[in-house]
Amino acid sequence: MNRRPTIAILAGLCLAVSAAPVPAAARPSATAQAGAYARLAGPPGTPPGACPTGASYGSPLPSSSVTAPRIQGGFSFLEGPVWVADGGYLLFSDMAAGTGPYNVQPSTIRRFTPPSAFDTFISNAGSNGIALSADGQQLVAATHDQRNVSAYRLNDRARSTVATNYQGRAFNSPNDVAVRSDGVTYFTDPNFQRGNRPDQMNGRTSVFRVVNGQVSLVDDQLRQPNGISLSPDGSTLYVGAYSENKIYKYAVQPDGSTGARSVFVNYIGGPDGGTIDCAGNVYWTSGGDSLVHVYSPTGVQLGTIRSGFTGTTNVAFGGSDRQTLFITSGPRNDSGLYSVRLNVPGYPY
Question: For residue 139, which of 76, 77, 207, 93 has the smallest C-alpha distance?
Answer without folding.
Answer: 93
